[in-house]
């Protein structure tokens, strides 16, 4: 059965990251499992312009409101690719009509609005996917298999440190909203959110946790792009640019995470993740923490204590690796959904909401000076 897709936010004049076009469209246009049958934008005219700009079928429906899209009985799955503070308003009509949903991460601007989306999906029975696609990364799947197979024995501890590009003394003008906490899209919710999800997916759930947040750059320079870094303005910032978390997991392992906002220095590695087990260790020394977006440049090294051997672990590739890099893990999520994969490599709204709860508690502690 071909899954009929309606996309909200695929624009011919995209601002921000242009994520719908770069990460979702490449897979959906080629997949035999999906067909794009409708677009919804801020106006019907904008949707029609996008249909033409991206070469979609002439019979693709154009809608100017989420209610119109929700009323289309020929749409099975609604995909939302807009700024985070619009996700709930745009997707709730379809959730209430029991349509399947793919919502980019974060689900919403805060925990309360994310909860409303989760409850609507649970009430109607909607099948849900959240854009926490690092779970589907071949790197994460390989690390999880090594751990689950017992190769390094019981996990004792894990530490991750890395930079984000965004969120430091400079910010890209196209995502200047990352400086505004009320929008809900910043390096805590986005970069840390993606990272903590793949860490907990790999290592296990949190039992107890402590966190520390700080804003070291309360005023930032806005730059035209990361390539040229020409200053085009300034912005006040009330979102954190230093994120520290320490946790005890339900497995008994300890977890330490430090994510630093800003453009990384010319040192290598720019991101380092180590997992210590009773029998061995795993190390990923890379130039990014963003396993949700990147699929290359994450070499896995395995150390076995008994032999002292250090091995470079190969990552298998498949046809999805021929897609543009941002689309590869998204494509893997779509593939699993089409196959009705019952594993938890697809993050549901329930999975995403747990990350929202964690982030909200971190923000509350920060507000209270804890």
Structure in words:
It holds the Pfam family Gal80p_C-like. GO terms for molecular function: nucleotide binding. Residues 16-131 form the Gfo/Idh/MocA-like oxidoreductase N-terminal domain. InterPro entries: Gal80p-like_C (IPR055080), Gfo/Idh/MocA-like_OxRdtase_N (IPR000683), Gfo/Idh/MocA_oxidoreduct (IPR051317), NAD(P)-bd_dom_sf (IPR036291). Residues 138-285 form the Gal80p-like C-terminal domain. The chain has 370 residues and is an alpha/beta fold. It folds into two domains: 3-131, Rossmann fold; 134-315, Dihydrodipicolinate Reductase, domain 2 (2-Layer Sandwich). Helices cover 30% and strands 26% of the residues. It has helices spanning 19-30, 44-53, 66-70, 87-96, 111-124, 138-148, 187-203, 325-338, 349-367, and strands spanning 3-8, 34-40, 61-63, 77-80, 100-103, 128-130, 155-163, 170-172, 206-214, 219-223, 231-236, 242-249, 254-260, 271-277, 280-286, 300-304, 310-313. An eight-stranded mixed sheet has the order 9-12-13-7-14-15-16-17. A six-stranded parallel sheet has the order 3-2-1-4-5-6, with helices on both faces. It has a three-stranded mixed sheet with strand order 8-10-11, with no helix packed on it. β4 (77-80), α4 and β5 (100-103) form a beta-alpha-beta unit. α4 packs parallel to α5 (111-124) and α6 (138-148) packs parallel to α7. The chain starts with a strand and ends with a helix. The mean pLDDT is 96.
